[in-house]
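Model: Ready when you are.
Researcher: Fold this.
Model:
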Amino acid sequence: MTVQLFRKYRPEMTVGYLMCEGKVISKTIEQIRMFPTPCIKEGKYELLLKHNERRGWFLQLRNEGPDKYIISPLQKGKFIPLLGIAPVLHWDRKAKFSRLATFKVLEAFEKVFASGDRLWLEITEGDQDFLEDD
């Protein structure tokens, strides 16, 4: 199964829609496109289901290089994870409901992981009209 992440690059953060089979699963926020903490490059990546005691369940993108990108909630409810994509329900001045949005993302992919199928994330820049502000 392949899901899509359509992005819009803003000066303060990168926002996007995570979509599966034509339906929006969640909005997302990431670091800005430029160095020192860039968002992951556009492309196609396998998603792996991971767990650890500190973070709980999260998704990891299989990418080249030493840095591992993840899909997980905002850190302490307000900080965009470095090398990560944070699902949120709103992008307005402050991102909101990141843990709930992350739960929705994991729930949407539950059957894929349970069946043993592979899950792919395709990241592209979205149409400006498609990615309207809240």
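Researcher: Now this one.
Model:
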Amino acid sequence: MKIKRITPAFALPLALCLAAPAMAEPDCSGGGYAADALVVPAPEIGDIETSTQYAWDGGGRLVEVCNLLTEGADFFATWSLFSGEIDAVYPGICVSLTNTQGVEWFSCAAADVVAAAFAAAPQTEAGIIRFEAWEPQAPTLQ
């Protein structure tokens, strides 16, 4: 597994939505720079085949926002987050990692965590959202 830092130029926009109302339109690299993300895959995940960023409603609904792999299928542990990648309906962020066996793992940051990181001074520890706790299922009502 290769781990590198991603910049906005590498993020690929996707228009696919999962159970999303028509009014939700978070956009990959949309808006201005807001914070950074750090993904720390758990050892049990293994080799990563896909990595996806979602906007999350805090319950069980996700909107796919960004493919986090480069065209060469490189995985990036850190990348920039932008204000347009969430909205009022989907104020949280989830990341999924799918391994080479097809098992998808999720790690999510609730709206308050995202808001605090977005409000923090740029390029500081407080401005980093960490995705370190993983579940082998999509989020549900919490």
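Researcher: Key takeaway?
Model: Residues 111-119 form the longest helix (9 residues).
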